[in-house]
Amino acid sequence: MSNSDFYAKNQRNEGNHAAAFGCSVMELRSLMELRGTEAVVKLQEDYGGVEGLCKRLKTSPTEGLAGAQTDLDKRKEIFGKNLIPPKKPKTFLQLVWEALQDVTLIILEIAALISLGLSFYHPPGETGGEYEGEADAGWIEGAAILLSVVCVVLVTAFNDWSKEKQFRGLQSRIEQEQKFQVVRGSQVIQLPVADIVVGDIAQIKYGDLLPADGVLIQGNDLKIDESSLTGESDHVKKSADKDPMLLSGTHVMEGSGRMVVTAVGVNSQTGIIFTLLGAGVEEEEKKEKKENNSKKTKQDGAAAMEMQPLKSAEGGEADEKERKKVSAPKKEKSVLQGKLTKLAVQIGKAGLLMSAITVIILVLYFAIDNFVMQKHPWMPECTPIYIQYFVKFFIIGVTVLVVAVPEGLPLAVTISLAYSVKKMMKDNNLVRHLDACETMGNATAICSDKTGTLTTNRMTAVQLYVGDVHYKEIPDPGVLPPKSLDLLVNAISINSAYTTKILPPDKEGGLPKQVGNKTECGLLGLVLELKRDYQPIRNQIPEEKLYKVYTFNSVRKSMSTVIKLPDGSFRMYSKGASEIVLKKCSHILNEVGEPRVFRPRDKDEMVKKVIEPMACDGLRTICVAYRDFSSNPEPNWDDENNILNDLTAICVVGIEDPVRPEVPDAIQKCQRAGITVRMVTGDNINTARAIAIKCGIIHPGEDFLCIDGKEFNRRIRNEKGEVEQERIDKVWPKLRVLARSSPTDKHTLVKGIIDSTMADQRQVVAVTGDGTNDGPALKKADVGFAMGIAGTDVAKEASDIILTDDNFSSIVKAVMWGRNVYDSISKFLQFQLTVNVVAVIVAFTGACITQDSPLKAVQMLWVNLIMDTFASLALATEPPTESLLKRKPYGRNKPLISSTMTKNILGHGVYQLIIIFTLLFVGEQIFDIDSGRNAPLHSPPSEHYTIIFNTFVMMQLFNEINARKIHGERNVFDGIFRNPIFCSIVFGTFAVQIVIVQFGGKPFSCQPLDLEKWMWCVFLGLGELVWGQVIATIPNSRLRFLRRAGQLTQKDELPEEDVNEENEEIDHAERELRRGQILWFRGLNRIQTQIRVVNAFRSSLYEGLEKPDSRTSIHNFMTHPEFRIEDSTPNIPLIDDTDDDSARRRMKYSSQPSSPNKNNNAIDSGINLTIDTSKSAASSSPASPLHSLETSL
Asked: Spans of biased composition, class Basic and acidic residues (predicted)?
């Protein structure tokens, strides 16, 4: 589309657009759609290059915008703001409507409506009499049930609503955290991303996630990862003359530069995609209600898009809906929630069975009693009364069901997680994925960075080797050779990012503020200590005049800058890790500052005499060097190997980064809690070991490994250079420090520990990272921690939790909270199951023996409310205690209900049943009141049944206090006042109960009780606490059978549960469907095994033919691109096949069986599988196993 078209289009708004700025939104949008040379040409022709564009946007390429508020507002008005409008939250009414979809509630509503209708129906020809009074009250029960349903719905909706609100709050917290460096009024300032406007000059550097589209003004060695937009993983080189287009949501992988912002918010490339997506999601929403409780900003959105394909590939779900649901957070249901949903379904099934039996028994009993025993004829005029009886029976059945289904379980998890997340904010943990919080409780290993996490990340130069002298502290500048000093000061000032500065302290007497790269800050600090200043040198050679910059990256481990000297020759300054830079030095400056030859044996001596002693003091050693080039002929700057060679060393600096004072204590806590802490760092091995000893990661005299990346790779790779799991298994259990490690080493280590099958429990690994290169490891880990201060945006994107204070001790807090979540859920389960068991048995037996449930429908609903909603609130908000860190982590496969809990559930159940049945059958004699049994329809409530109901609730209340401890502790009141929510709920429930009993009357089927009877009820309730102590004395070892009981709930769950780790929990119906597929895969597997046997014979006959390559390890997937997907599918055989070899082959052959397949059609998936195989197999020659597999299919 040519320019003139645009002008024609925009003629109408020409008044305000072009008058204010020389280009309109649409022009800029179309400009940003071009790439490479096209873009350069267009810029030149239409705008007169980048400078022309800046002029039109009324901004200066060096000084930026003036920053006047009116100007900024005007820009926001014309070009839009830099944010993508979030999706509208669900309204309260929508949430109410969703809560009403609950099946049990619907059944109850229908039953209540029938009951209401019948109570208003008077059979013709019947006149008054004693029946009138009862019939009048008939509607009350129906109305009361409806009312309680309304209560339950409102409470659920309110919980959902507050959860949503918290999520949004969290999201906006994350957004405000993200800032970007912008030049305004020649000052570099940090701005929240949302405040960036078109025309801003943004400074970009390694590790940034670009917040808006822009055109590069000047760049050094800039490489961008545009995979989030294009899907191409290769890094794209950007330069002002070849490809200056920078797009929002892409990552800077190397280099630095400045760009002028040309499009923000919805007009940026990511924004455009998002608006399209938004429309797509809306359509999708109408078709199916998907939960989406988070808004994504531009920043988060770009990331979501980037993570989605990865995640879905990992989970093996090529499900379209998943793809479209990009804007929803991916991992919502966690392992724990999966277990709970499963448990709830199992309990629900049992409840359904019980309720059905109850109804059948009641109906049969009634029919037999009336029509067979008493030989009443069925009279047409009596039909409504009979129907009323049947409806009453039906309602009793439904009530049993309502009590049996623990809908409080998912609620408890949500409340507990939401509460924890909110509190973890105070402990400097910003949780991005809810379930990370609970996974952290099971962590068995933490791989931590050194710099900034274990140390303070305030670098100070403390030792210096220059002119053949090793100074143990920074010397007086007079002592140093003047030539060396000049070179040193220049080398440090010029060869560092110009964004790195040392600013005066914020408050008097504080430490100076370090801005930018901390190692460079340490070196600049050295310049200042040598009574020199770096700013004048930088002013003399501004960033534009730097001839060529080789930025620091994890491969080079050094940074070099080339400048043109006045005489036309070139000088390159270099700095980097000392052992790496010294290898490239051929000369060194002597005591008078003249270069002398630096032989290999001098190098060895230097390493021994200077570098190792520095490193053993825990210092990071940096070598500064330079090299001169003649201008004629000009060197080939792209030939890095020759350029970065033949250097002259100036000095070696020892930089100290002190250990954070609270770290040793935190690490000790981790070790006590059964968590191994490993240090993975890019530093020198001696430095790393010294710091590890200071932190307490290693204790002298223990059997442990401290190795560097080279040695690590030598140990874990076979002759072909492939990583082998068996080899990793020999290394990781003892490994404590991995030094000079590359990002891939970190990823390999994390993957190796997670995939390891040595221990009976799968290891749960947490990883901390701050750099862009830590992304893969952070994603691979079970929980990734990113640094909030030092972390790059890429790292934050890949992480689950952001440490807002970059401190290791915050990780320990996260472990504590995670364990607390697990314990809270267990407490709630223990309480809930007791109530369920008792209520169901009471309703069932009561109904069978006395034709009427001792606990009425409305009473059951009240019990359900206290035990579900309130109890989950009370027990899920227990604050964590230090004692949580004194036990080992629970394994992944530990059943939810431990043997102690089973003991408690059964023990308390027995007590409650004894009391209630005693009251039911002999209560009238004990209290000397009328019996409430066998009362006719619609009779007024009896004191007898009120006592039963009241006692039941009292016992639940006191049992709630018992439920606070699940490990069999004696003191159940321990720390009870630290939890105000718990106290208020217990007292609140008690108060409401008094009101219900005294004034509930007909709707609650309650008769007011006098004080004496109340005392008895409370006394029987208090018995729970005494009984709790009795149960605690019974040792678990006595109760062998309980062990089995504790496991029962999960017997069939474990294999499947593991499969579900990566996916969202799969619905039950789907799981049934999956059974068919499992059988299908099992059959396929048998075929494969047979084929393999045949092939084994064949290969021994024809050695020349291709052998099935089954011996290689799972890690080969890393080498075949097609298998990158499996990289993270948990390798759990779905098929009962013990031969691990065949499991491996299966992983190779079929990318699907190893991960749950979401195709409902088993055959379909089988076909997919074949296609997959033929694509990815090494060959499909007639002799290969694949060929025969295809024919057999």
From this structure: 284-299, 318-330
- Rounded distance, CA 112 to CA 402, Å? 14
Cβ contact 830:905 at 8 Å? yes
Contact (Cβ atoms closer than 8 angstroms) between residue 151 and residue 865: yes
Asked if residues 785 and 803 have their Cβ atoms less than 8 Å apart, the reply is: yes
Dig out the tokens for 460 from the structure.
């100070």
* 901's tokens: 């809990």
DSSP assignment letter at 218: E
User: Are 953 and 985 a contacting pair, CB within 8 Å?
Assistant: no
Closest by CA position to 492, among listed 504, 481, 482, 484: 484
8 A C-beta contact, residue 524 and residue 501: yes
The one catalytic residue in 213, 449, 683, 806 is 449
Q: Could you tell me if 207 and 772 are in contact, meaning their C-beta atoms sit under 8 angstroms apart?
A: yes
Q: Give residue 621's region: left, alpha or beta (phi > 0; psi -120 to 50).
A: beta
What is the SS3 assignment for 320? Answer: helix
* Number of other CB atoms surrounding residue 979 within 10 Å: 16
| Domains of the chain by start residue, with CATH | 3-82+196-279 (2.70.150.10), 429-454+661-806 (3.40.50.1000), 460-656 (3.40.1110.10), 820-1043 (1.20.1110.10)
Residue spans of alpha helices (H) in 1034-1139: 1040-1048, 1054-1060, 1068-1101, 1116-1119
Pair type for strands 213-225 and 251-263: antiparallel
Please write the tens of the pLDDT for every residue from 956-1014.
899 988 888 888 788 888 888 888 888 998 899 999 999 989 987 777 788 888 899 89
| 449 given a catalytic annotation | yes
Helix, strand, or coil here: 466?
strand
The Cα 968–Cα 1032 span in angstroms is 6
Residue 1102 CA, chain-centre distance (Å), reads: 52
Please report, as a single letter, which amino acid is at residue 404. Answer: A
**Quick count: other Cβ atoms within 10 Å of Cβ 145?**
27
At 432-444, the pLDDT tens digits run 877 788 788 888 9
Cα 605 to its chain centre, rounded Å, is: 49
Return the structure tokens found at 488.
């040193």
Cα(397)–Cα(351) distance, integer angstroms: 10
Between residues 1095 and 839, which one has the greater pLDDT?
A: 839
Q: Is the predicted pLDDT of residue 1096 greater than 70, yes or no?
A: no
Distance CA 232, CA 251 (A): 13
Nearest to 903 by CA among 1031, 812, 1026: 1031
- DSSP, collapsed to helix, strand or coil, labels residue 185 as coil
**DSSP of 1130-1145:** ----SS----HHHHHH
- Under DSSP, the state recorded for 660 is P
In a 10 Å sphere around its CB, with 0-12 CB exposed, 13-18 middle and 19+ buried, how is residue 557 labelled?
middle
Q: pTM of the full predicted structure?
A: 0.67
Long-range CB contacts for residues 11-20, cutoff 8 Å, separation at least 24: 16/78, 17/78, 20/74, 20/78
Answer whether 438's CB lies under 8 Å from 424's CB. no
SS3 content of the chain, % helix, strand, coil (to 5): 55, 15, 30
Q: Is the pLDDT of residue 1146 over 80?
A: no
Closest among 352, 380, 387, 384 to 366, alpha carbons compared: 387
List the structure tokens of 1053: 């769950």
- Closest CA relative to residue 249, chosen from 324, 319, 294, 301: 301
Tokens of 1034: 């019974």
Cβ–Cβ contacts within 10 Å for residue 597, how many?
8
CB 1014 within 8 A of CB 947: no
By CB atoms closer than 10 A (0-12, 13-18, 19+), residue 191 is: middle
Q: How many residues can be counted in the chain?
A: 1193
Q: Which of 696, 698, 578, 591 is nearest to 647 (CA)?
A: 578
The answer for residues whose C-beta is within 8 angstroms of residue 724's C-beta and 6 or more apart is: 716, 717, 718, 1113, 1115
